[in-house]
Design goal:
- It contains ten helices and eleven strands.
- α1 runs antiparallel to α6 and α4 runs parallel beside α8.
- The chain is of the alpha+beta class and 311 residues long.
Length: 311
């Protein structure tokens, strides 16, 4: 091959490599821009239905695999939604209500059988959507399972028996029971419209990076534990830390082993994580509507689902 041809080939290869590198840098930074934009607008009222179904594309996450033997809801007699319903003394048009509330998935399950299943916008039977605080129900269930398997001795124990990193914080010496009941006494502001609230400061960690563990350990005590119930998402984050330390597994791994497979999940699910690979235990689960419904079915059947007593 002539020297000038070899030189041209080298130049082309170098240019191709540069294009790939630049493309990768642009894609990486665009993801960061999208992530930041989502976090900034999460509680502003901006439309989010085009984001809630693709959270693992925007944020780091861990995967739980569908069960090898999925539990399937049966098919019940189909029903239709009423044209209108009463709310606060007024008649409301059902279709208008579903549109105005950006409803993406609606399931009506009675006695273990699906009687209505309706998907809209970016929803779908196989689409994983962000749980928000539905994740709290899964996290607290896992705490009960950890007590049952002996990983946690008692919910009367102080959480710092298992999570010493919380010594000196609002959670120092606080009973697991008080944290489960959101009466930890930690100072907390969950005002979503306040950009400086604690919940918004926590959400920003996902946008710009950081440690939820460190954020949790920074909270200070305000009230006597067990004396006042106050909704506090970081109380549930503490339960995630408790599960990790007590079981020696990540929340993802423990839930896969103890709950996700056992209850017969039909699809994969994803836990959003922070920069340190800690799950957002208070709201970062992403799953399909039918698999979310299984936590309700599990409790309806008093812990027996998919032919097994799992809780």
């Amino acid at each position: 091959m002539p020297k000038d041809m070899k030189m041209k080939n080298k130049i082309l290869i170098a240019l191709a490599g540069l294009v790939v590198l630049v493309g990768g840098v642009v894609a990486y930074n665009w993801q960061k821009v999208e992530r930041l934009n989502f976090a900034i607008n999460l509680f502003t009222g901006a439309e989010q239905y085009e984001n809630f179904n693709r959270m693992p594309e925007l944020f780091p996450s861990d995967t739980m695999k569908a069960a090898q033997v999925p539990f399937q809801f049966g098919d019940g007699e189909a029903i239709a939604l009423p044209a209108t319903f009463e709310m606060n003394g007024a008649s409301v048009d059902t279709e208008t209500f579903l549109t105005d509330t950006d409803t993406a998935a609606l399931l009506v399950i009675q006695d273990g059988k699906v009687r209505l299943e309706d998907y809209r916008l970016t929803g779908g039977r196989d689409v994983q959507w962000l749980s928000m605080s539905v994740a709290k129900s899964f996290t607290s269930t896992l705490v009960g399972m950890a007590v049952e398997d002996g990983s946690i001795d008692s919910i009367e124990d102080p959480v710092t028996k298992y999570v010493p990193a919380l010594a000196g914080s609002a959670y120092d010496g606080v009973r697991i029971k008080d944290i489960l009941q959101m009466s930890s006494g930690a100072s907390w502001n969950e005002n979503y419209s306040d950009p400086n609230s604690d919940i918004n400061r926590s959400a920003k960690i996902l946008a710009i990076g950081g440690s939820l563990d460190e954020f949790t350990a920074s909270l200070k005590n305000e009230l006597k534990p067990g004396s006042f119930n106050r909704y506090n998402s970081t109380d549930t984050q503490v339960l995630g830390m408790l599960l990790r330390e007590a079981t020696g597994s990540s929340v993802t791994q423990y839930m896969q082993k103890m709950l996700w497979s056992s209850m017969g999940a039909e699809d994969n699910a994803y836990w959003l994580t922070d920069s340190e690979n800690m799950e957002v235990a208070y709201g970062g689960l992403n799953a399909t509507a039918r698999d979310y419904a299984k936590i309700g079915e599990l409790y309806r059947l008093e812990g027996n689902i998919n032919g097994k007593q799992i809780v």
